[in-house]
Amino acid sequence: MQKSMLEGLKDKLPVVPGILGKEDYFNSAVLVLLMLINEEFHFVLQKRAANIRQAGEICFPGGKFDPVQDANFRDTAIRETVEELGVTSDKIRIIGNLDTVVAIMNTTVDAFLGILDVYSLEELQINQHEVEKVFAIPVSFFEDNEPEAYKVNVRVHPSYVNQAGEEVTIFPAKELGIPERYHKPWGYAMREVIVYRIEGITIWGMTARLIRDVVIKLRGL
Question: For the whole model, what pTM was predicted?
Fold first, then answer.
């Protein structure tokens, strides 16, 4: 690189740093949805239907970014909420952005905080193909109750065993001349998994992390 190119390189640096290689992830967006019930804000959550990916889990409305339908991740969050809860977009008010979550399973989640402007959950026409049920939990519950915290161990595997019982190498570390310790699974990265439990409902993973993030921000007010 010549000295004269330095200024040009500087102009190409991002004003706000992003996530390098984000296009290689499963990119999605969710709407952390609030609803005012009896003068108190509640989180609006849903239980995923039995016939879809991550069936039976508790989550906020959201889904995969679609470059054909969505101009940005905000559009994704609104579109998915409309499709899943059966409300019109004018009933959704976006308050602002939350931080992007980079999940363990090769997924990024751009999160937004919003308000659902309906008087009752009974007004919703939920999509039964994707959502089993919708319910609301007071934000104050999460302010008053700390989550449980656990750990999972994440390792890097340079190969896997297919259905025929054959080992398939996907990262040829030996052939590339990379040190021997990378020829077999490596790494012992401990990742925190937080869990909230309330009246037989378990909220965990990314959804719990987003709730905790909102609660931490509230405590800083």
Answer: 0.89
